[in-house]
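Materials and Methods. Structural model of Nucleoside diphosphate kinase. The 143-residue sequence of Nucleoside diphosphate kinase from Tepidibacillus fermentans was retrieved and submitted for structure prediction as follows.
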Amino acid sequence: MERTFLMVKPDGVQRSLIGEIVSRFEKKGFTLVGAKLMQIDSTLAEKHYQEHIGKPFFQELVDFITSGPVFAMVWEGKNVISVARNMMGKTNPAEAQTGTVRGDYGLSVGMNIIHGSDSPESAAREIKLFFTEEELLTYDKVI
Ligand code: CMP
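The predicted structure was written out as tokens:
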């Protein structure tokens, strides 16, 4: 089954949106297989955002993601990578549709509430960066 990495960013945590965001993905039918509240240090931030090294907003990105706790998650389900991206909405909240996480709650392209892997390759890389195998649970839903 496909897995993706999602993360409630510091703005989402501080605005008490963890429950709302988890609820959206639960109600969609995806399965939460790992989650933790954590503080990202600059080493992890630079690894996570390695594709953006050299871009003008890179330092701002690292400063923001390390500014307070994030809620890191791994979700499992059919087409979860692309469906979760649709549920998140466009990167810039001003362009994200109402009904998406960023469209409903995001303030700016930097403070856009949530991160989600954009491909199977980045999902595999990001899951490994944030979670050990032991922290991820595989289980069948019986009810
Ligand atoms: P995210 O999905 O976490 O992946 C990279 C992030 O870079 C993106 O969300 C945005 O928050 C951020 N980002 C993209 N473009 C800009 C920009 N022009 N200025 C600041 N941050 C940006």
